[in-house]
């Protein structure tokens, strides 16, 4: 008997890459994708013809089924500040009420994997951030619906593990970018690329010296593939996954302005509660996933993403953009 | 037209005191109490004969009504570590899914008040703790269901205020004790009193030097009464409410061993993730609630609580205790 797998947010940026990898597995019999297309896009899945895949267009918190799954991968959530700040209640429901719904659907002995975030560290006072760092999140602030619902979902799942013994894999992802990001996503790399290809004016908020660790999606999904479905791993998380090369937002803008003819940079007022720095301590990741490394330099990753954005913007995809405010993710 | 008020957890320790105060209000027409008697007790309400009060025995997250309320006071949650650690999923549901349910029941222009906790500060690195301190909570730890669901509920309500303009009052309560605490509550004062009156052996965990700020319930409810229902206050919270006299757990045990004949202290191994210190910075509280002070010394409060426990234990009330582990709250 093959495995039954459920992926929430499977039409999203990272989700659709995970789906591609899952479909390479010969031990998988059935793959259910739950997505409400809030930030996910149908075109992220249109290349898939595999009969094992079934798409359910539904909010994860409202999804109902009598089936039980061997593996559940919970990715449903907006990940970009303008999107979650516009609908904070819905963000909390997707993450936490979604997880409460999903824990009822795990086969006995089954596994739940969850994409948490480096945002659980808030505006960190130490760098790089190890998993043991408890973070500095303002739980009443304008970014809190995302940060706190990720934290509380980690808590829910860890407590389910402690009290009910569920098999768990939690990752904390650091700024992922690459093909299939929505052009209107609103975070730095995608924003700069969209702007470079349209208005030509790259908007940098604050002094641009806030740093991020930009992880190219192929590298990140390589790590997730190993971590989420290798049975021999006996570590529930949380596990930092990202690229530990730290680069300022301004440097990314400059690089893109250099490679796209006619693009220039415009400095704008700072965004409230934009973290000043973010860099993963990958010590544990290298222990748990030996041999894995982020291999794609940001220069190469940005070039690849630029090509993808060029094709996508040419074809006129994506709409339903939030307010045009950009909040560096 | 008088006010319609909803109190969740109204049969609980603090909730039932709030209900007593609410019934003194002549502007209140109808009071609905929602309580599932998980940690609340029917006997906390049996003295009330007021026709305006209606009790709904129901989980707050499942409560349904077509009524809308002018004021909602959300207190439903266990507050003692052994209780919430035994049922973490239920704890998250009571706080957060409860709040998600309640925000649909507010009259336009109505107010929601929420009892958050000093546990949002985790094991604090600064003392006393001002409301601006972002805390040090382990979001994967054994106490996290309570700490993180309180944090995430604060986030939900603040984001509802930011995006939908709801009227909000959030308090962070520091160790409250007094009459109507369950004798099997499991936190330090009630535990010591129960032990002093039964086995005679007061169990202190670790070195007993972990400090707390013990707030006598009458003082605390005086503050809540002002903050939750005075219209002229224009501050949504979070507001620390407590007694800022910091006393070690061991000193409380010694005091009780002194006043109860035959009682003695037994030192036990430490409890995981028991915060080392906890003391409110009350600067903001004194500005927002001028004239309010915690007036009852802990010596006086403990004596009053002892009398109440003596009466209660004599009458044989309360059962359904969790595992006997004590976790200093």
Outline the structure in words.
- Chains A, B: Its cofactor is NAD(+).
- Two copies of one chain form a homodimer.
- The first copy, chain A, folds into two domains: 201 residues, NAD(P)-binding Rossmann-like Domain (Rossmann fold, 3-Layer(aba) Sandwich); 91 residues, UDP-galactose 4-epimerase, domain 1, CATH 3.90.25.10.
- In chain A, 33% of the residues lie in helices and 20% in strands.
- In chain A, α1 crosses α6 and α3 runs parallel beside α4.
- Chain A starts with a strand and ends in a 14-residue tail after the last helix.
- The H/E string of chain A reads EHEEEHHEHEEHEEEHEEHEHH
Which structural class best describes the helix and strand composition of chain A?
A: alpha/beta
N/C terminus separation of chain A: 42 Å
Helical segment count of chain A? 9
Oligomer designation? homodimer
Helix % of chain A is 25-40%
Q: Calculate Rg of chain A over CA atoms.
A: 19 Å
What name goes with the CATH superfamily of the largest domain in chain A?
NAD(P)-binding Rossmann-like Domain
Low-pLDDT segments of chain A: 318-329
Outline the biggest β-sheet of chain A: 7 strands, parallel
Strand order of the main beta sheet of chain A, please?
A: 3-2-1-4-5-6-11
CATH architecture of the largest domain in chain A: 3-Layer(aba) Sandwich
Q: Do you know the CATH topology of the largest domain in chain A?
A: Rossmann fold
Mean pLDDT of chain A: 94
Task: Provide the descriptors you would attach to this structure in a database record.
329 residues; UDP-galactose 4-epimerase, domain 1; alpha/beta; homodimer; seven-stranded parallel sheet; 2 domains; disordered C terminus; two-stranded parallel ribbon; 13 strands; Rossmann fold
